[in-house]
Specification:
The chain is of the alpha+beta class. It has 2 helices and 7 strands; from the N terminus they run E-E-H-H-E-E-E-E-E.
């Protein structure tokens, strides 16, 4: 099962600069564990205590996984997962 994972600039140090990597897993949790085997350190930037980090947004085929089953969201062959850090700030 091949799943494309789009990596934000801030996490590309873990993927040797790659904008996208392939992974496998039946759920997001399994996918992130799989990614960790090839890109050491990336999982800790996405997951904390078995849940998605508060300031990390993850999309499955353009749907926010927080409105699906979160880290337990089921995946299928050919899915696209996008990881985006939350952005805050602005002018006061």
């Amino acid at each position: 099962m091949a799943i494309e994972v789009r990596i934000p600039t801030i996490l590309r140090t873990y993927t040797d600069g790659q904008k996208a990597v392939e992974g496998k897993g039946d759920t997001l949790a399994e996918l992130f564990t799989d990614l960790e085997t090839r890109h050491a350190g990336i999982q800790a930037r996405i997951v904390d205590d078995g849940q998605l980090r508060r300031f990390v947004n993850v999309y499955l085929n353009d749907e926010d996984v927080r409105f699906l089953d979160g880290i337990n969201t089921k995946l299928s062959d050919g899915d696209n997962v996008t990881i985006l850090p939350a952005v805050a700030g602005g002018m006061v």
